[in-house]
Design goal:
Shape: globular
Structural class: alpha/beta
Number of domains: 1
Radius of gyration: 16 Å
CATH architecture: Alpha-Beta Barrel
Strand content: 15-25%
Order of helices and strands: EHEHEEHEHEHEHEHH
CATH class: Alpha Beta
Number of strands: 8
CATH topology: TIM Barrel
Helix content: 25-40%
Distance between the termini: 21 Å
């Protein structure tokens, strides 16, 4: 069970099924320490969110029922320049920004080379703390090693997304995750592990990770989830 989980979707993402308070209560029951609310950015066709939704998250307490609740977003990379769908003034009110490439967003596949360049431009923008499911190359092929190396240089965390370790795992994705972890390890950086929960029963659930952990070369000392102070430093937050 993860003690820290920063990739969580609520009913505001339209295709998820629980409220923020329901996640908080579940986190309390699971004895978690930190959760992050990260609904889809507004350019995603599956979401109900807009800029105001994300700005107003800051009005909630930082600690609810003893759980530290961070306010974030899973933004969409929207073009080959690596731009995302969250305005600067919105980002200023969030605790952290994650970003990824998604179907149902304005981003159009431009081939492996240019997709990789788009990722690197997002990484080097200084606006993003975490790349979500960056090993997923099915819809938007890209160079995993080059992207990972760039993220390590710029202090951007790469995610092992637990939702892909279950029903969506394939030999190609397994190899991609192995490559990502190996490059992170070579650069002496850390990985973040997130559930990508769409309901409270997926929150913090690392059941599938136990099956693949050894295969992908992931050890506890590589998981920044186990080092909250280091994580908060990367996010620019005070605990």
């Amino acid at each position: 069970m993860l003690k820290v989980d920063l990739h969580i979707h609520t009913v505001a993402s339209k295709h998820a099924h629980n409220t923020i308070l329901e996640y908080v209560n579940q986190a309390k029951k699971l004895k978690m320490k930190i959760i992050g609310i990260s609904d889809h950015g507004p350019a995603n066709s599956t979401t109900l969110t807009d800029q105001i939704y994300f700005r107003e998250l800051k009005r909630m307490p930082d600690v609810i029922e003893g759980i530290r609740v961070l306010k974030g977003v899973e933004a969409n990379i929207i073009n080959k320049n690596g731009e995302i769908d969250i305005e600067d003034k919105t980002m200023a009110r969030l605790d952290y920004v994650m970003a990824g490439m998604h179907r149902g967003s304005p981003y159009v596949d431009v081939g492996s080379r240019k997709n990789t360049e788009a990722y690197i431009k997002t990484i080097s923008s200084g606006k993003v703390h975490i790349l979500t499911h960056p090993f997923y190359t099915v819809d938007f092929p890209h160079d995993i090693a080059e992207m990972t190396d760039a993220a390590c240089r710029h202090g951007v965390l790469l995610e092992v997304n637990l939702s892909f370790l279950g029903r969506r795992m394939t030999p190609v994705l397994l190899d991609n995750i192995k490559t990502m972890v190996a490059v992170v390890k070579k650069n002496r950086k850390k990985i973040i592990v997130n559930s990508d929960a769409h309901n409270i029963w997926e929150l913090g659930n690392d059941t599938h990770l136990k099956k693949y952990k050894k295969q992908i070369g992931l050890t506890d000392d590589l998981m920044i989830n186990n080092y909250p102070k280091e994580l908060f430093k990367i996010l620019g937050l005070k605990k």
